[in-house]
Amino acid sequence: MDELLKIKEEALLKIHDCSSLKELNDLRVFYLGKKGPMQSAMKSMKDMSKEQRASFGQVSNKVKQEITQAIEEKRKVLEEAEMLKKIQNEKIDISLPGSQLPLGTIHPLTMIREELEDLFIGMGYSIAEGPEVESDHFNFELMNLPKDHPARDMQDTFYIDENTLLRTHTSPVQAHVMLAANGRGPIKVICPGKTYRRDDDDATHSHQFSQCEGLVIDKNITMADLKGTLELFAKKMFGEKREIRLRPSYFPFTEPSVEVDISCYNCNGKGCSMCKNTGWIEILGAGMVNPKVLEMCGFDSQVYQGFAFGIGLERVAMLKYGIDNIRDFYSGDLRFLNQFVRKD
Ligand code: DAH
């Protein structure tokens, strides 16, 4: 009897300590199989009295039952642990970084254009486009630059034929938009796009460049509306502390016309090399739409007024990012382009 209880205790302990299904199966074969210690203990039954044999038989059956039950319970525990381990091992670690594909960056001119678009769309403007191959009529005549006008000299360009050319500015889009509106306001558009001039390329000139035109036409539009709009533009593009100043200027399509400066963001207006010690940086041209242009484009200048402005995108990008050679925009040099990673 003692022998049986000893076997039981030893078996239960081993079952408790065992850590794999294989080990558990070995224990089962050993303790419950034909050649195990139970079986040898049973051999002594033949020398026992009838009563002794009966109670020995009972105890040994009970021991077998207990061992069987302990094995079953342990099997469940081990099977569960094994399954858990398998699930753990098969889990995909989504935090593992994937292999990186080389991603391009946004071109700085595109960044500036999109920034402007976001800013003006936020103020209720829409975006208009016009052809880059333009007629003399739209590029010059409707902008109040007739054939013999001296201001045409500053805007020589590439001609397809006598009356067809690569546009010298985005201003002709004003005429397209006004004519499409059939004399009825309001109009609030910006027109970003490529422009061309027969210039010799150098650090600040390029035969191809980009502009963004702005045009607002409505009743009771004044210079104050223009100033407020451009002030917001200056602050959003160059920082909240920026101020603007308007200087009288001349453009045939606006009357009066102004040249717009922003207070230097480098020295805050004190004077430095960036602003040539003036505290101001020239940034764009603007003005009230010339009544002649309004009339030519189908608007009653007694009823409607408007303002317009033209922004050079390269100039804004050069100022904003401290770029000193306009050719960097077009040469496709990755060392330059890779520096422009958008933060949003
Ligand atoms: N079109 C002019 C240029 O290319 C820029 C400009 C000046 C546009 C004044 C305007 C404006 O709309 O009002 O030099």
Describe this structure in words.
- By secondary structure, the protein is α+β, with helices and mostly antiparallel strands.
- The protein is 40% helix and 20% strand.
- It is built from eleven helices and ten strands.
- The strands form two sheets. The protein has a seven-stranded mixed beta sheet with strand order 1-5-6-10-9-8-7, sandwiched between helices.
- Strand 3 and strand 4 form a beta hairpin.
- Helix 1 (2-17) packs parallel to helix 4 (50-90) and helix 2 packs antiparallel against helix 4 (50-90).
- The protein is rod-shaped, with a radius of gyration of 44 Å.
- Bound molecules: 3,4-dihydroxyphenylalanine.
Main beta-sheet strand count, sense and barrel state? 7 strands, mixed
What is the chain-wise order of helices and strands?
HHHHHEEHEEHEEHEEEHEHH
Helix/strand/pairing class, anyone?
alpha+beta
Strands, count? 10
Rounded to an integer, what's the Rg over CA atoms? 44 Å
Strand-residue proportion = 15-25%
Name the average pLDDT.
Answer: 93
Assembly status: single chain
Extract low-pLDDT stretches. Answer: none
Shape: rod-shaped
Attribute tags:
single chain; three-stranded antiparallel sheet; rod-shaped; binds 3,4-dihydroxyphenylalanine
